[in-house]
Amino acid sequence: MDNRLKNGLRPRPKFNVGTDGAGMSRAATPPASRPSVMQAPVLVLNATFEPINVTAVRRALVLMLKGVAQAEEIHSSEVHSSSRAVAVPSVIRLLTYRHIPQQSRALSRKNILLRDRNTCQFCGRALPASELTLDHVMPRSRGGHSSWENLVACCYDCNNRKGDRTPEEAGLQLARRPRPFTLHTSRQLMRLIGHKDEKWRKYLFY
Ligand SMILES: [Zn+2]
Fold it and tell me: How many CB atoms lie within 10 A of CB 78?
């Protein structure tokens, strides 16, 4: 193996969006590498080149190994399996067109954190996912539902401080009104991340 390449692998800056590849299939295992490279964001295009999602390198490699997607743009890093170097994709495209419903995001912890950009909605601190919890703005004990409009990313400090109270009662203020994750939110996020990767731009800014 080329040690120069191996040693030249630099960790990518961590993006605090939910691109941890959670929920990936265990059927195909991409080559092991430093976690930071495997978690770098990859733009996913539909077969028609329309941007539809952001995923992690790990998940993108699985999609490529399964023959579901192909690389359109390549990242400067490589990852290594025991026998070969594998190019890291920066943009992938699905080989078969997939219909994307307007409201395609499931209500989940991962998607709430993604919508709120891993930022506590009370104190404004951006934190790793492991240091955030979900807060019911109107507490469940007082009839608050688990919904896009009533769940926000929240650090443990603020969560403890708030307890079973409304933000007003606890002297806390929401950074913004929580909304459902729409395709619009999704595209805004893709553009935000895309600013950091030149190879994404031609697909996102048109
Ligand atoms: Zn907080």
Answer: 19
Q: Which domains does the chain have, with CATH numbers?
A: 37-100+182-201 (no CATH), 109-170 (1.10.30.50)
> What is the whole-number distance in angstroms between the Cα of residue 177 and the centre of ligand 1?
16
How many angstroms does the Cα of residue 120 sit away from the middle of ligand 1? 5
Question: Which pLDDT tens digit goes with each residue over 59-112?
Answer: 999 999 999 999 999 987 777 777 777 889 999 999 999 887 665 577 889 889
SS3 92: strand
- Count the alpha carbons within 13 Å of 39 in the hemisphere toward its beta carbon: 14
**pLDDT tens-digit readout, 2-14:** 444 333 333 433 3
Q: Cα–chain-centroid distance for residue 205?
A: 20
For ligand 1, the distance from its centroid to the CA atom of residue 118, given in whole angstroms, is 11
**What residues contact 85, with CB distance under 8 A and at least 6 apart?**
1, 2, 5, 78, 79
Question: How many angstroms separate the alpha carbon of residue 154 from the centre of ligand 1?
Answer: 5
Task: Report residues near ion ligand 1: CB below 5 Å.
Answer: 120, 122-123, 155, 158
